[in-house]
Specification:
Chain A is built from twelve helices and 19 strands. Chains A, B: Keywords: ATP-binding, Isoprene biosynthesis, Lipid biosynthesis, Lipid metabolism, Lyase, Nucleotide-binding, Peroxisome, Steroid biosynthesis, Steroid metabolism, Sterol biosynthesis, Sterol metabolism.
Chain lengths: ~425, ~425
């Protein structure tokens, strides 16, 4: 180990995006390895709007493995953390730092402890798949720290064991999680389909919907579905495999109509099998339903899909607009139907890529009040304008995969103490 | 025809119950004959609380077929009315009234016109399957008027062509609609399983839930599901046939646990395939979801099901309590979670069998305010007590099939003019 005393600290900081599935993962065939009953496809979200930053560090002075999430110490004793740490440590390689004057041999990693600090640049508990970005970032940064030789695909199989959907956050653009066939999970990995530049007209608007009811965790929810739903196996074996092929083709061809149809149908089918679970699981609420109705009516009135929607295990809507022009129209319609509360600050009601708000011609609350009702809604029931049903909107786009942050100012741990800054 | 002038009027009045499916009908294999893709099972509701009364009359003085629904003239030109009228007329037999001194020969029926008046003893447009009771009553009363020799099963095949679920209203108790095999629909008929006395401990509470969104009609909804849902055929071919067998057995054995499990699961699966439709169909809303959560939590806390729930093509909940004691507890819990609005009249908030309200110890609005929170809810999220989410409750029970009303005071048409009273 180090030859000049034991005070050195080695540190790596990385940033990893979150992702949203357009063909859904729901149901495991192996609970402990986290092997899914079907493949899934996701779009990676731009990390400048939604991402996790993680700093991992190692030092002979550390007494135990520790982790801080958003500044608060959390336990690492959970099986999923332990499994990721174990898998990475077992693949660790020699690390030598001539400048700091130490060398860590492969075998030393078993004895060294790590400090981990992680931070989400978006509100936690907003149902925005923070565990996907979190476990991806943990695995990616630890792999760099411990000098693993594995490629991103092989790392994705480790991240998968932390949180299934985390494996898809190892790449940017559109990503497939191949369910694999092996019982050890070695081929249940993420595969990049196209990078984020392939289809760069797409704009994504996320409505963070206010939830009144406590939600079922996705871990227990998907277990209940696999155990009780008479429809889930038919979905996994007969429906999804065809959709995966069609979705890959739609993405490759930038065929928005097929992409939107598949995304919406698959989101709805995922929520259908949740409802087919005993007891039933409801993730979408009346606000989610209103957002779907708005998009469906608009798409039908245009004759061809303008916007795709997809909902994960919660009421939040992720809407994917075919281009920027459509996205500004979408934002106008959404702000009309779901205006901010009177005392709200518009600047915190629409976050992320704020230029979309400007392009939509909305700069002040008065501009929101002046918005015209979406014509496709007024033909039937007059649009409700209830305040408070949406907490805020995030404007974003497809984004890149994990990156290392080399600027020490971006590290979350102090390079002297190894504690959170 | 009549020998003593043409001024006679022949009149029949009947009363027919509505029904609620516990194994759901959703999807037709023949749109025009109304042949379903799966069999279904329903419970007939007590006509003293929910029923249709219909008076049909014939006279040589009538110039055309006319119908009044709840006092308002409606068109009989729709295909479903025409089909029922044609099917019944083609089976009409000789009728002779010695007292009034006329005879109608079989062949005369083609030339004679009918007047029909129908009345629902419950609010229309409340999503309470008024068309089921309505078409059953139309067919039953016309069959009596025209002296058909067909039995109730054969009449059910005619009522089915008016509204699918109407066929199940030809019998009391629990009723199976056998999907049949014949392409002409002759074997797609209702079959009585047990009469209303077989399982007379059951008590039914219906929550009429306030709907904000316009609902998809069941006719177009089930067509869309059959055309677009990848799950519906699996449900119809693989899931429902097994459930039909299990449900028949549960009813025969008065096995409430199995009955409740099947009823709830099948209701949820019906709504799941609605969600799997493109565009998705939402019949349940947040209030429906809260009712399900309440019942599910209570059933789990008791270890064995106390209450079954089922939802038709709308947000209303039909809850079936295993006995009267359970039903009073259910009503207390429901009134706690869904209290009437401050200016409401308790007497119009709980209708039907009002003795249940007395047994629940609730006589005044003060009694509602004094209700204790359901213990199974307080353990997690505190129960919301939002007023106005439920319009009213109907307390009822399994009931009898169609009956003739012989008291002329109960007729809806004037025996002299043939017009609504």
């Amino acid at each position: 180990m180090g030859e000049q005393g034991e005070n050195w600290i080695l540190m790596v900081t990385a940033q990893t995006p979150t992702n949203i599935a357009v063909i859904k993962y729901w149901g495991k065939r192996d609970e402990s390895l986290i092997l899914p009953i079907n493949s899934s496809i996701s779009v990676t979200l731009d990390p400048s709007h939604l991402c996790t930053t993680t700093t991992v560090s190692v030092s002979p002075s550390f007494k135990q493995d520790c982790m801080w999430l958003n500044g608060k110490e959390i336990s690492l004793s959970g099986g999923r953390f332990q499994r990721c740490l174990r898998e990475i440590r077992s693949r660790a390689c020699d690390v030598e730092d001539e400048k700091k004057g130490f060398k860590i041999a492969k075998k030393d990693w078993e004895k060294l402890h790590v400090h981990i600090a992680s931070y989400n640049n978006f509100p936690t508990a907003a149902g925005l798949a923070s565990s996907a970005a979190g476990f991806a970032c943990l695995v990616f940064s630890l792999a760099k720290l411990m000098n693993l030789k594995e490629d991103h695909g092989q790392l994705s199989a480790i991240a998968r064991q932390g949180s299934g959907s985390a494996c898809r956050s190892l790449f940017g653009g559109f990503v497939k999680w191949d369910m694999g066939k092996e019982s050890d999970g070695s081929d249940s990995i993420a595969i990049p389909l196209v990078d984020e530049k392939h289809w760069d007209e797409l704009v994504i608007v996320i409505a963070v919907v206010s939830a009144h009811q406590k939600e079922t965790s996705s871990t227990s929810g998907m277990r209940d579905t696999v155990e009780t739903s008479p429809l889930i196996q038919h979905r996994a074996k007969e429906v999804v495999p065809k959709r995966i092929v069609q979705m890959e083709e739609a993405i490759s061809n930038r065929d928005f109509s097929t992409f939107a149809h598949l995304s919406c149908s698959d989101s709805n089918q995922f929520h259908a099998v949740c409802l087919d679970t005993s007891p039933p699981i409801f993730y979408m609420n009346d606000t989610s339903h209103r957002i779907i109705s708005l998009v469906e009516k608009w798409n039908r009135s245009e004759g061809t899909p303008q916007v795709a929607y997809t909902f994960d295990a919660g009421p939040n809507a992720a809407m994917i607009a075919r281009n920027r022009k459509v996205a500004t129209l979408l934002l106008q319609k959404l702000l009309y139907c779901f205006p901010p509360q009177a005392d709200a600050d518009l600047d915190s009601y629409v976050i992320g890529d704020k230029s979309l708000l400007k392009e939509a011609g909305v700069g002040t609350m008065n501009d929101v009040d002046a918005l015209a009702p979406p014509p496709e809604l007024t033909t039937s029931v007059p649009a409700q304008r209830t305040k408070g049903d949406v907490s805020y909107f995030i404007c974003t786009r497809p984004g890149k995969g994990p990156v290392l942050l080399t600027d020490e100012n971006q590290a979350l741990l102090d390079s002297k103490t190894g504690l959170p800054k």
